[in-house]
Design brief:
Helices cover about 50% and strands about 15% of the residues. The chain is of the alpha+beta class and about 290 residues long. Helix 3 packs antiparallel against helix 4 and helix 4 packs across helix 6. The two termini are about 35 Å apart. A hairpin with a 2-residue loop joins strand 1 and strand 2. It is built from 9 helices and 6 strands. It has 3 domains: about 100 residues, no CATH class; about 90 residues, DNA polymerase, domain 1; about 45 residues, no CATH class.
Length: about 290
């Protein structure tokens, strides 16, 4: 898309170097400023047949696709806003300045494959970067508010644990061993008095934190997160079809209760999760003739 004579923003596809993922490509963004070029990955994946080369967006209308297109729109809008603001402030408009702007904006940058060295980067640094990453995904509507809160709770529990250990400064990553994680598990179950499944959830997301750090180049080797706690499926009562029909026929006095009941029945009939239902809008519906 040509914005003006000096700025062009376009999205294109690049193949994935993985023979197991067939016909799927990564969407890249290309920016041309005064004949300088910047290419970077948006981290959005798509089947080649579902990408429109004219609109440079994904054609499918599912919830996941809408979110991916929102990411592309956000990238484009951020670049245009940077360009416009730079014109107003007489700031030099170059590819390098744009690259620095995007890196600062996304903290850490989800889109540009620029790696930072891990010199003097410790656990506190990684936790801060992960919080920024969570905030960015939430602002781009890629995760629900409840998910964002859960991820941040994972970070906060680790920070609290470091304080409990009497660590006020940076914590060196070389000290992350089995003993550290087993003691952290005991801290969650004992001192924090979390139930087993909740502790398991936080420990599992701690593993995702270090995978994220490895993918961004802040650590050179993956960190093994070991723990003993296991997830156990809690007993859940399941409604049978007759109970659902009874709920369907139930007359309620207040309209808001009707709406709540209908939303629950919609989940029963479609299998939608609560967070999927939250994101559902009229634009996701398609009339069948």
């Amino acid at each position: 898309m040509k914005i003006n004579s000096n700025l062009t923003i376009s999205f294109w596809l690049r193949g994935i170097k993985n023979p197991k993922i067939k016909n799927t490509k990564t969407i890249y963004c290309r920016v041309l400023i005064n004949n300088e070029r910047l290419d970077f990955s948006t981290n959005q994946k798509v089947l080649e047949k579902n990408f429109c080369m004219i609109t440079e967006r994904i054609k499918d209308k599912s919830l996941d696709v809408t979110q991916a297109n929102n990411v592309l729109n956000t990238i484009s809008n951020d670049i245009i806003e940077y360009y416009s603001q730079s014109l107003k402030t007489d700031e030099s408009i170059t590819i390098q300045n744009l690259k620095r702007h995007l890196t600062k904006l996304y903290k850490p940058n989800e889109y540009i494959a620029e790696k930072e060295t891990n010199d003097e980067k410790g656990l506190i640094f990684l936790l801060g970067k992960y919080k920024d990453y969570i905030d960015q995904r939430y602002r781009n509507k890629l995760i629900a508010e409840r998910t964002m809160v859960t991820y941040k709770s994972t970070v906060n529990h680790l920070i609290d644990y470091l304080k409990r250990m009497g660590i006020s400064g940076e914590f060196e990553l070389k000290n992350l061993n089995r003993v550290f994680f087993y003691e952290y598990e005991k801290y969650l179950l004992g001192e924090k008095r979390l139930i087993q499944n909740t502790a398991f959830k936080y420990l599992k997301q701690t593993r995702q934190l270090f995978d994220f750090a490895f993918e961004n180049g802040w650590i050179t080797e993956k960190i093994s997160v070991r723990y003993n706690v296991k997830y156990t499926n809690p007993p859940r009562e399941i409604l049978n079809i007759e109970e659902i029909k009874t709920l369907h026929r139930l007359e309620l006095k207040e309209t808001k209760n009707d709406e709540t009941r209908d939303a629950f029945l919609f989940q029963c009939y479609t299998g939608f999760a609560y967070n999927e239902l939250q994101r559902l809008s009229i634009s996701n519906l398609k009339e069948m003739y």
